[in-house]
Amino acid sequence: MVDDSATVRTLIRINLELEGFEVQEADSGARCLELVPGPDVVTLDLLLPETGPDGLDVLRRLKRDPALGRPRVVVVTAAALPEDRRLGESAGADAYITKPFEPVDLVDAVRALAEPGDR
Amino acid sequence: MTPEQLSQAVLDTVKAAVADGALTLTAVPATVTVERPKNRDHGDYATNVALQLTKAAGMPPRALAELLAERLRKVEGIAGVDIAGPGFLNLKLAAGAAGELAKSIVEQGAAYGRSETFAAQIINLEFVSANPTGPLHLGHTRWAAVGDALGRLLEAAGADVTREFYINDAGNQMNNFGMSLALRASGKEVPSGQGLYEGAYIKDLAQAILEEHPVLAQLPEDAQVEAFRTAGYKLQLRLQQESLEKFRTHFDVWFSEKTLHESGDVEGVADRLAEQGHVFEQDGAVWLRTTDFGDDKDRVIVRSNGERTYFSADCAYYLNKRDRGYSPCIYMLGADHHGYVGRLKAMAACSGDDPEKDIEVLIGQFVKMVKDGEEVKLSKRTGNIVSLDDVIEMIGVDAARYALARSSVDHELVLDVDLLTTNAPENPVWYIQYAHARMASVKRNAAELGFDKGAAEEFKPALLAHPREEELLAALAEFPRVVAQAAGSRAVHKVAHYLEDLAGKYHAWQSEKKDCRILPLGGEAPTDLNRARLWLVEATQTVLRNGLDLLGVSAPERM
After folding, report:
1. What is the reported pLDDT for B456?
2. Of A10, A99, A104, the CB nearest to B449
């Protein structure tokens, strides 16, 4: 789960853990790339600190580099315009959720992507 | 606003109408009842006060209802009043008035649910009262759980309660006990069919006594029986006390039957009862004419050979309790004591007491334990016994206490070991404890997100307006009434059923994941609604904890 806001990370972690998921946190794109391969699903903020790779960049690498395990990716972002969504989807996002988001929707999206035999 | 506060508001309205002459009553009632209607279209609460007072007021019920409705509409916290049928008043609370309860519960904490309903009563609660000749069995275990919980309930309802254990240490069974121990200590078998104690535990006890007092082995046979009786009594009583303590069952008084004989109380019973004129002599024996008060036959107090009966000791014990100022004296007896109800009550009446007020006899039905679909057998005499310690080991204190308390003692009970040790909603104790732990975890989650319920003056009770929230608040409001009613009817199981219903209402509230979300939306700051819901979580948690405490069951923060 990648987000630079500690509060958002906590909220996502609480909701996912309540549903029985194991969660790893990353506060930057660089940290995310250290944690893969491994996770089945990555929740990814697109607007990440300028010091590292931005979210779209991370998304493209996760989707293109087989060495990173090809995880499913749920984008969780404040970028809510239709063109933002198109950009995310064309970069390979499996689901696109805009902030402020309903935690239940996020959990549903992750569960749908994490189902065994899904890939 | 609780139902009690609403009842009071209705009563105050009646009194005010009398005071300003709008209403003339021959007698103002002491209380007014409000009920939660099954169909919520009829308001939050309903009262039949107008029907109840129509005669005393000399007014048709509907007209009286109109008069009261007009005044009730002006009461703060009441949002609407409708008149239904012949003169029922349906009351709708203001949103804030219902929600305000959450804050009130949190602020009262452990005190919420307690009342002064039975404040004038000084109660003697006698339960378990086992012979000190063996381990406590399943029947005792039922009373240990229910009796202790009833003590807690009565105290919560304001009564002054003394929990008492009557030690049956005066009868012939004590000699048999000493003899059984002496036989085992010298390596002999205990013969069957002679009223001796053959249980496997006798061997262990004898061994433990010998280890503590090796000299006993050297004593002549006669002296040995006496010595083993004394040492065995002390040791067995201590073991019972330790088991009960482990089961969180506390007694204030351990009353020895022997002391009644030593003090002359048993000997003096006939004279004391004779003062009331219900004692007579026949065939050389002294009798109490209990048939004067509904018993099926009269009872011998002193046999023709001068010996005192067990019943005379029962009389002396009752009189002793009354001398200590208790009323009522509550007896909790095992299922094989049905015959005692009539004779104990009649004896109380013979002593000049009111058998409906000064004495109560509760009978607890049998308990069975089942594991893997098979009954776990109990038999105190043969040694294949299910003891209190076994129950604790197989089920655990919380689950055992809860399972025993959740059924009416009037019914036989089957404890299903497999069910009671399962972590699943079908296991009622797990269901309630899990709900409590979930509430604790929601509060921890909120703290992780950097917020809590906030200051009391910032609380916005009117935001708790979802139907599920209204249902939950209404259930929370019932708790004090449930406690008082359960204490009054000696029905501990009603508290358990209430808690199961409450936990269900909490789960139902939280199953409305989006509409009743406690934690904020991702990426947003917590709102007043999130905080108001945390007040409701904490209020529910408080009531679950208080209720579990009444049953002597723990309320875990994590599971």
Report:
1. 96
2. A10
Residue B527 lies in a domain: yes
Pick among A8, A9, A10, A11 to test the B interface (most B CBs inside 10 A): A11
CB atoms A101 and B522 under 8 Å = yes
Which among A31, A55, A36, A33 has a CA at the least distance from the CA of A44? A55
- Please tell me if residue A80 touches chain B, with a CB cutoff of 8 Å: no
**Residue pLDDT, tens place only, B8-35:** 999 999 999 999 999 999 888 888 999 9
Shortest CA distance from B448: residue in chain A: A10
pLDDT digits (tens, 9 = 90+) for A7-30: 999 999 999 998 889 999 999 999
Residue A8 contacts B, CB cutoff 8 Å: yes
Asked whether residue B23 falls in the same domain as residue B63, the answer is yes
What is the structure's pLDDT at B82?
A: 95
- According to the model, what pLDDT value does residue B378 have? 59
- Within-domain flag for B281: no
On average, the pLDDT of chain A sits at 91
> Residues of chain B whose pLDDT is less than 50?
380-382
Q: Which two tokens stand for residue B332?
A: 């909790």
Q: How far is CA B435 from CA B37, B162, B353, B355, B453, in A?
A: 26, 33, 47, 43, 19
ipTM of the complex: 0.81
In a domain, A118, yes or no: no
Q: In angstroms, how far is the first alpha carbon of chain B from the final one?
A: 33
Query: Is A1 a domain residue?
Result: no
* Residue A119 within any structural domain of the chain: no
Residue B38: predicted pLDDT: 82
Contact A14 B517 (CB under 8 A): no
Residue B240 in contact with residue B136, Cβ under 8 Å? yes
Q: Which of B45, B70, B93 is the last residue of a domain?
A: B93
Tally the domains of chain B: 3
**Domain co-membership, B395 together with B444:** no
Query: Are B406 and B501 contained in the same domain?
Result: no
Q: A4: nearest CA in chain B?
A: B523
CA of A67, closest CA in chain B: separation in Å?
31
Number of domains in chain A: 1
> Which CATH number fits the domain that encloses residue A97?
3.40.50.2300
Nearest Cα neighbor of B137 from B146, B148, B128 is B128
CATH number, domain with residue B188: 3.40.50.620
Q: What is the pLDDT of residues A58-107, one digit of tens each?
A: 999 999 999 999 999 999 999 999 999 999 999 999 999 999 999 999 99
One domain for residues B369 and B252: yes
Distance from A27 to chain B by nearest Cα, in Å?
A: 15
Nearest chain B residue to A106, by CA: B522
* CA distance between the termini of chain A: 20
Length of chain A: 119
Distance CA B218, CA B182 (A): 11
